[in-house]
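Quick note —
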Amino acid sequence: MSELLLYFFAAAVVQNLVLATGFGTSMILRIVRHPRDIVWFGGSMTYFSLLTALSGYLLDWLISTKTLTGLDELLHFLRPLLLIVVVSLWYLLTVLVFKNAFPKIYHRMELWLPMSAFNNVVVGVALIANHQFSVSLLGAVGMSIGASVGFTLLSLLVAEAREQLDHTDLPHAFRGLPVLLLWLGLIALAVMGFSSSVSFI
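Predicted structure written out below.
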């Protein structure tokens, strides 16, 4: 349980995965235009990230226990592609269930559901957790939930900063995206100050 909390806290706050790796930065800049959908988007991304990390953990276990003999080198090389196939299968299953069982909810999340499933945070967390660090199952769960919660928190901060930084005191050249990128850079430096030389990600 402590490993789950350690990786959750590391991926969400101490070394925010978005700020430390750049995963999902373009998605943050897109989702902050619709602030009321940020929490729903983060929840959906948590769902896909968790399922992909768990499926990737199972896939890596099958590869490491030599269950799939003869294909070891090919499977290690094709691991990112296999994770994208896993995300696609989870996405299709989710769409089928929500479209048939909950059509009103599906209509509301129809536009941002593919963006929450097919972004580099979801696949990146599975690759980092299962391949780079080979963490335990609880560590992979903590890292995937922590990265999604960190993404959601950072999206809420960026949405608030977008409103606060949008005023006429700024020079015209810095308004909009330039000042937002500068602000993200300063936040990234502040978060990197928490981690010092210890790296979980």
